[in-house]
Every structure is written in C-alpha cells, then in structure tokens.
Amino acid sequence: MKYKITELDKGVEQLSRDARELFYRFYSFEISTGSLKIPVEMENWVKKRFGSLERVENQQIVSIKNKFTGEHSLFNKLRSDRPIEAKSAIALEELEEKGKCLFCNPEKQTPADVFGRVKGEYCITGSNIAKYDSSHSLVIFNEHNPLEIKREWVEDYLRTGERWFEEVSKLEKKKLQKFFLWNCLWRSGASIIHGHIQLTASRMRYGKLEVLEKVAADYKREFNTDYIEDLYKVHEGLGLASENKGERILFYLTPIKEKEIFVISKARKSDEMADTIYKLLRSYLNMGVQSFNLAIFQLGDYHIARLVDRGSLEDRNSDIGAMELYAASVISSDPFKLAQVI
Ligand SMILES: [Zn+2]
C-alpha cells in the first residue's frame, strides 16, 4: 500500500470491515482544505519556494485524533517547505571538540551515586548534578560525539542503565518505575553535547504514563482485548508497521512531533531492544536527523520505546509552540513515507 497521509480516507476505505471498525474505534479524522489567495507580487516567489501556486492556494490538512489518549496531530506537508528565517549556522565539527568536556572525564568531573558507579564496556554511570527526580542519573558514553553510534554500544548503554536501575531498586522498599531517556543534542533539550542517556527510577508513576496505563486498563474493561495489540493492528492494517526480531514498530498515526516511531516490545529488559533501537537510530541518522528524543518505559508486560525527530540544528525557532503544549501537534512529516524509508 502506498498512500500519503492526505489519502488516509482511501487507506481506511480499503480495510476489511472489522479492521475499519477498529480504526474508527481508535481514531477520528478529517481531511480538509485550507484556502488562500496569493497576490500577483508573490507568485514567482511562491512557485520557486513551493513548486506551484495551487499547492499553496488550496492546502490539504489532515487532522487525526486518538479518541482514547487524546493524542492529536495536524498534518500539513507544506509546513516543512515554508521559509524559516531564524537560522543559526552550526558546524558539525563542534561535535568533535572535546576541549572542556566534563563527560570526557566522568570519574573526576561528574558526581557519583551514593552506591558508586555502574561501569559498562562503553559507558559509565554518573549521578545527575541537578536532579529532576530523587533517583536521576546518567549513562555517560565513552564516545563523545552523540551521533557516533554502534549496535553493541547501544546495547551496553541500555544494559548499564538496567544495572543502575537494579542498584537503585535494592535501596528502595517500594517498587520503582523505570524511565530511560536519551535527549540528543540541543533541539531535544540536551544541554551537553557528549552522548548520554538519562535514567530515572520514580516512586510515583509519571502522569503521562499513568494516563496511558489508565487508557489500556479502561480499554481492556470495555473491549476485553489489549489496547497495545489493537493499536498495532490498526497501524499494521494501513501499512504503518514493521517488525524487527519480534519487536513491533509503528509509524505513529498521531505523532507528538516529526517522524515519531512507537516500538512495542515484550523484552524483559530494555537492552534486549538494542538491535531495534540501534537500527531505528541508524535510519534516523541516514535521513539526516541530528537531534532526537528517545524514551523507554514499561507498560504492563511491555517495554515501549518512543522516538521523535526534533528538527535541524540550524533552526533557531523551537519545533514546539503553544499548539503542541496546549492543543495538538503540528506535523509536516508523513508516517506513510516514513514506513517506506525505514
Ligand atoms: Zn566529551
């Protein structure tokens, strides 16, 4: 199936009756046209910039919402072609400058956890100096440049994170919630260039994860099937899913931001997902992604990983505005296209 997000109606139409019903159980969507009139003085510029006047004068908007989670995305491909004036030049050589990098010397230049450090083959843990939760530490990669990745490194980072989580769990009576995240480069919120994954072990379930948990529990009660399995089925039916070593990859229909990928795993520990995560990151880098967020957490028996592109390091404007914070996400990438590339 080779649809575009603007042909979502056709994609849904060709589904079997059951699959279509399942789709509509999850999603409501609308394809509409936003119209405008280009003044003569702008015509040449618009043609050069966007290819044709028609494309701009009648723009297709796809609005799709997950009825259970409230995740809502507004797609308009034209937005990725619009001029961005706030560019600041960034030299990728900067990523190789190790000059005063504290993380290049973690044992002397980063704090340790009270129980010490967990050492991996390609990384070491450090305690976060300004914590956002009581157990909040880092896996600091041996490799400085965060865009240099290898499969066995990713596996080691995650395994080291898991070992840290075990250490922290030993000190706590209450069951802790594992949340690993990788903010890569500035656009993603990372303040330090040197590659690192952040680890938290929280007593309180994070609000957004609790909402998802509640959605899954309510879904089970109402339909007597599994929310995550059905979410996968809907994506698979539309050609928006693939598999890698038993892990299921969704090219998410309601991305939080560009090119969001949702991985469903039955792994008991996150390092078992390393091959899939490595391959996805490799695909991201091949597509030119420079800055991303990766989050890994548990949901019932699943490990879920979510990965999102945060845009070009050259752009000064943030990719997230009031729409994303308070309403719905504005997206220019097409999950159908993503499914073909990855
Ligand atoms: Zn460094």
TrEMBL record:
InterPro entries to which the protein is assigned, alphabetical: HIT-like_sf
Protein name: Galactose-1-phosphate uridylyltransferase
Organism: Candidatus Methanophagaceae archaeon ANME-1 ERB6
